[in-house]
Specification:
alpha/beta; 23% strand; five-stranded antiparallel beta sheet; 13 helices; 3 domains; single chain; seven-stranded mixed beta sheet; FAD/NAD(P)-binding domain; Enolase-like, domain 1
C-alpha cells in the first residue's frame, strides 16, 4: 500500500484484539508486522479467561463427584491432583499459543517476539535495536493486574501467578469484589482451600443486578467462603515457615498461605513511547480513542483493554476487526456498538447478564415490569442440594421490549448467549411468551415467566 514505509500496519501486542486486527488487515492486502514481548495470545489465552475456565471445569468435578452418589454411582474415595490439572492446563495454553502464531504466519504477518517502542513519527524500535516504519500503528497491549502499595505487598500474587502455584493453598485470602476475585474464590474453595474474600466496600460484583449479587453471596457463604467487607490491608509479614501474617483494618492479624490481589486491572501503556508522538492518555493511563479506535494521533489506533472501554475479550476482538476493516477494507468505516454487551462471571454457580439491571431501567425508562423465576434445578433436587437458581427479566412497560436479562444458575452463560441476541434485537416479552419451551431444561424458564 505505502511504499515509503516498511509496513502498512505495525501492531504492538499480540493478544485477542491485536491478533484479529493483524490477521484481518493482512487478509485485506496490507503488509503487517506485530510485536509481542511475552507470549502470543495475550491475557485471555495465556493467563486469563481460557486457562481460568479450564480450572472452573476442574473445580466443578468436586460437587459433581459428590452428587454422583445420589444418581446411583459409587465412586469410591476421590483425591485431587492439582499439579496434574495445572500442567494439563499450561500444556493446552502452549498449544493455543502455537495456533495463534500459526494463524498469523499463514497470513504472512511478520512476528517479532520482543518489545516494541514508538520512537518517532511512524517509527518503531524493537528491543534488538532494529528500527522499522509503518503507515499505521495499532496499540493492543492489554492491561495487567493492579496491586495496591502497602507494607508487604511484595508477598502477594495476582491471577497471573495463580495458574503456576506449586500446590493448592490451605488458606487463601483474595482481595477484591469483582469477577476475578469471585471466580478464583469458587475455584480454590472447590479444590479444598479455606477461602476468605476481603473487599474495601460492602458490595461484590458492582454493576450486576443486586438480586444476583445477593444470591451469589448467600450461596458462597453456604459453601464456606468467608467475606470481610469494608476493610483493607494494613500490612503483610512473611513468616519463617513461608506463611503470611496479614493485618486488615478492623481485624486481628491472621495467617494465610497465599494472598491474591484481584482489585482491578490497569492499561499497559508505560514505556511504549506514546508521549514521544503525543498520544493522549486518560487518568488511568488508558489510550483515549474515538468511536473508530483512533487516538489523538491520526495514524495511531488502539483496541482492547489498553483503551479501558470494556475490558472483555470479545470486545477487543470486535474492535480489532472493525479497525482492520475500516482502515484497510474496501467498505465504509464502521464503529463497534458497545451497548448491550453480554457478560458472565464463572463463579460457583455462574452469573450471566445482558442489558439494563432493574435499577438502571427504572432510572432511565421509568415504568418497567420485572419478571422472576426462582427455582431449584432438577439436578440439585436429586442430588439433595438446596442451592436455587434465579432468572430476572426486565421489560420496558411502554413498549414491552425486553431490556435486560440476568441469571444465576448452572450453565447460565451458555443459556444467556442465545437470549442476548433477543435483547440486542429488541424483541418483546410477547415474543418470549410465544416461543415454545424445551422441556425439561433450565433454559425454558426464560419463556415461562409470568
Amino acid at each position: 500500500m505505502a511504499d515509503s514505509y516498511d509496513f502498512d500496519l505495525f501492531t504492538i501486542g499480540i493478544g485477542s484484539g491485536g491478533t484479529r486486527a493483524s490477521r484481518v488487515a493482512a487478509a485485506h492486502g496490507a503488509k503487517v508486522a506485530a510485536a509481542e514481548e511475552f507470549r502470543v495470545g495475550g491475557t485471555c489465552v495465556i493467563r486469563g479467561c481460557v486457562p481460568k475456565k479450564m480450572l472452573v471445569y476442574g473445580a466443578h468435578f468436586a460437587e459433581d463427584l459428590e452428587d454422583a452418589r445420589q444418581f446411583g454411582w459409587d465412586i469410591g474415595e476421590c483425591t485431587f491432583d492439582w499439579v496434574r490439572l495445572r500442567d494439563h492446563v499450561l500444556s493446552d495454553v502452549t498449544r493455543l499459543e502455537g495456533l495463534h502464531t500459526e494463524t498469523l504466519e499463514n497470513h504472512q504477518v511478520t512476528i517479532f517476539k520482543e518489545r516494541a517502542t514508538i520512537t518517532g513519527d511512524h517509527e518503531i524500535t524493537l528491543e534488538s535495536g532494529k528500527v522499522v516504519t509503518a503507515k499505521y500503528i495499532l496499540v493492543a497491549t492489554g492491561a495487567r493486574p493492579f496491586v495496591p502499595e502497602f507494607s508487604g505487598s511484595e508477598h502477594v500474587i495476582t491471577s497471573n501467578e495463580a495458574f503456576h502455584l506449586d500446590a493448592v493453598p490451605e488458606r487463601i485470602l483474595i482481595a477484591g469484589g469483582g469477577y476475578i476475585a469471585n471466580e478464583f474464590a469458587g475455584i480454590f474453595n472447590q479444590f479444598g482451600s479455606k477461602v476468605t474474600i476481603v473487599n474495601r466496600s460492602d458490595v461484590i460484583l458492582r454493576g450486576y443486578d443486586p438480586a444476583l449479587r445477593d444470591r451469589l453471596l448467600q450461596i458462597s457463604l453456604t459453601k464456606g467462603i468467608e467475606f470481610c467487607f469494608n476493610c483493607s490491608f494494613e500490612w503483610i509479614e512473611k513468616q519463617e515457615d513461608g506463611t503470611l501474617l496479614v493485618k486488615l483494618t478492623g481485624h486481628e492479624p491472621r495467617v494465610f498461605d497465599q494472598v491474591m490481589i484481584a482489585t482491578g486491572r490497569v492499561p499497559n501503556t508505560e514505556g511504549l513511547g506514546l508521549e514521544t508522538v503525543g498520544v493522549e492518555l486518560g487518568a488511568k493511563g488508558e489510550i483515549i480513542v474515538d468511536a473508530f479506535s483512533r487516538s489523538s494521533v491520526d495514524y495511531i489506533y488502539a483496541v482492547g483493554d489498553v483503551t479501558d472501554r470494556v475490558q472483555l475479550t470479545p470486545v477487543a476482538i470486535r474492535e480489532g476487526q472493525a479497525f482492520a476493516d475500516s482502515v484497510f477494507g474496501k467498505g465504509e468505516p464502521y464503529a463497534v456498538d458497545h451497548s448491550c454487551i453480554p457478560s458472565a462471571v464463572f463463579s460457583h454457580p455462574p452469573i450471566a447478564s445482558v442489558g439494563m439491571t432493574e435499577g438502571e431501567a427504572r432510572n432511565k425508562l421509568g415504568a418497567v415490569r420485572v419478571y422472576q423465576s426462582d427455582f431449584r434445578p432438577m439436578k440439585h433436587v436429586v442430588a439433595g442440594r438446596n442451592e436455587r437458581g434465579l432468572y430476572k427479566m426486565i421489560v420496558d412497560a411502554a413498549n414491552d421490549k425486553v431490556v435486560g436479562i440476568h441469571m444465576i444458575a448452572p450453565e447460565a452463560p451458555e443459556i444467556l448467549q442465545g437470549a442476548a441476541i433477543a435483547v440486542k434485537a429488541g424483541l418483546t416479552k410477547a415474543d418470549f411468551d410465544a416461543t415454545m419451551a424445551i422441556h425439561p431444561t433450565m433454559a425454558e424458564e426464560l419463556v415461562l415467566m409470568k
